[in-house]
Amino acid sequence: MNPLSALAYYRCFRKRLLLLFLPVMLCVMVLFLIQAVIVSSIQLEHRAFVVTRKAYTSIQAKGKPISLDTIAAIRLHENTARVAPCILSHTEITSLLSRIGVRVYLLGDPDMRLLMERMDVSLVSGRLPAAGSDEIVLHDVVARNKGLAVGDRLGSDLDPSETLLGAYTLVGLLEGDALCGFASLENWQTVHDVAVPEEYGILVMPQPGRLAALNQFVAYLPLSGNELSSLPVSTATLTESANRIYLLLNTVFVAVLLINAICVSFLTYLFTLSRSREFAVLNAIGYSRRAIFQRSLLDVLILNLLAAATGLLFSLLVALGLQATFFLAAGRPLTLLSLQVWLPALCVPLASVLAEMVAIRSIFSRLDPMQLLDQDA
Fold first, then answer.
1. For the whole model, what pTM was predicted?
2. What is the full DSSP assignment across 63-111?
3. From CA 155, how far away is CA 150, in angstroms rounded?
4. Average of pLDDT values for 227-233?
5. pLDDT by residue (tens digit) across 118-171?
6. How do the domains of the chain map onto residue ranges?
7. Sign of the CA dihedral 358, 360, 363, 365?
8. Which of 24, 98, 214, 285 qualifies as a cystine partner to 79, CB 3.0-4.6 A?
C-alpha cells in the first residue's frame, strides 16, 4: 500500500475513522431534518398569510360600518380594477410549530371566480359553492390537514373549537400556491339579514402591477378604525414572527457547528499527534513534509465529504419517507428543495475541515522528524 494513498491510515484504524465520521454525519442529519421542519412550517404560513394577499387589499368593518364615501373613493381610483363586497372568515390548520389561520372568502360567484383566477388557484375536485348555500370549498392541503373530505361538514356550530363561524358542507377542493377557502356571500347576508354587505367588508383588486400603489393609497384613507389587510402588513407580521424563530434556530445551528468542530478537531489532533513518528519515518525515506501535510489534509477533506454525503443521503431518504407516509397525507408538506434547508447541513463539513486543518497545522509546525528519530535511536 502506498503510505500516502488516500485514507491509508484510517483504513488500518477503522474505529478512529468512525470516531471522525459519525459526528459529522449525525450533525448533518440533525440540522437538515430540523431545518426542513421549520422552513416547511414557515413556508406553509407564508402560503396562507402572504401569497393570498398578493391578489387584493381588504377592509373589514370593526366597530362601525365602512363609509360609503371611502368605498366610492377606492372604486374611482386609477389603480383599482374591482371593489367586491366580501366578508373574511377563517379556519385554522396546524403545522409542526404552530396553528395557522387560513382565510375563507365569502364572495358572490363572479367575484369568487375572479379572485381564484388572480390567486392562481383552481378547482381540483368537486364544485364551487352554490349561491345562497351553506357550502364551502377549501384548498386540498387545508382539507387534508383538518382531516376533511368532500361531503364532510365543519364550522363552529358543529365543533366549538373550530374558528370558522357557522356550519358548512365541503363541496370542493382547490389546488395552487395560495392556501384559502371560499363560501357564498349571499348565505351570510341571509343569515345576518344584511342588505348592503359592502358596509361590512370589501375586497379591492388592483390593476395589473399596481398593487403597491393601491396599498399606499388605501393606507392613508380615513378608515375610522376599520381593519385593513394588505400585503405589506401581512409580510411585516410574518417576517417578525419568522425572525424570532430563525434567531433561536441560528443559535442552535451555531452551537451544533462549534461543538462538532471542537470534538472532531480534538480527535484529529490526538490521532495526528500519535502519528508523529510515522511522519518522521516517511520524511526520512524521502517524502517531503509538504507532501505528508497535504495528504493529512486530504484525508480530513475526504472523510468529511463522505460523512456529509452519507448524512444528507440518509436524512433525505428519511424526509422523503416521512413525506410520503405522513406529512402529505396530514396536509403538512415538507419543503426539501429550498437552499435554507440544505445550507446549514453543508456548513457542517466546512467548519469541521477548517477546525481540523488548524489542529493538523499546529502539529506540523512543531514537528521535528530528526529529533524523533534520534530519540528512537
1. 0.82
2. SSPPPHHHHHHHHHSTTEEEEEE-EEEEEEEE-SS-EEEEEEEEE-HHH
3. 14
4. 85
5. 999 999 999 999 999 999 999 999 999 999 999 999 999 999 999 999 999 999
6. 8-45+239-376, 62-225
7. negative
8. 214
